[in-house]
UniProtKB/TrEMBL annotation:
UniProt keyword terms in alphabetical order: Repeat, TPR repeat
Species in which this protein is naturally found: Glonium stellatum
InterPro entries, alphabetized: TPR-like_helical_dom_sf
Keyword Mitochondrion: no
This protein's record includes keyword Repeat: yes
Name of the molecule in the record: Uncharacterized protein
Pfam families, alphabetized: TPR_12
């Protein structure tokens, strides 16, 4: 089924690119969605390629640092690194995404809890259990509200 999804996203992305341009939010979201489909298939190189496009093309400059999608795109790059065992790189992307999401959404937002959860798991993987435990408590607090 993912093959059909990828074909559909590719088709939609081609139209969006031709009609709206490379830097339009719809096109960037198309790359993000295609990256998610490739991630689900375990095709991390293709996923990373599309996430990088979604995270670049002047995304921050065009749509501003207050756009949540900017930070979701950065988080997705962390997800690729995490899945491939690149935990140090994943931490870098997750920290950047966290700071942006906290600024945009506020401390108690679901998006912030989700990225903190990813940070906690990544810290566990690199053996920094104290940081992981502290973040897990924070995630629990946010989600209990």
């Amino acid at each position: 089924e993912y093959k059909k999804v990828i074909e559909m996203f590719d088709f939609m992305l081609e139209i969006s690119t031709n009609v709206l341009g490379l830097d339009h939010m719809t096109t960037l979201r198309g790359h993000h969605n295609l990256g998610k489909a490739y991630m689900a298939m375990g095709r991390y190189d293709e996923a990373e390629k599309h996430f990088k496009i979604a995270d670049s093309n002047g995304l921050k400059e065009i749509h501003g640092p207050e756009n949540l999608f900017v930070h979701l795109a950065t988080q997705a790059l962390g997800d690729v690194q995490f899945q491939q065992g690149g935990f140090d790189d994943a931490l870098k992307f997750y920290k950047e995404a966290y700071h942006g999401m906290e600024r945009v959404c506020g401390r108690g937002a679901t998006e912030v809890a989700n990225i903190l959860d990813k940070l906690a798991e990544t810290y566990r993987r690199v053996g920094e259990t104290d940081k992981a435990t502290r973040l897990t408590r924070e995630v629990t607090w946010i989600r209990s509200k």
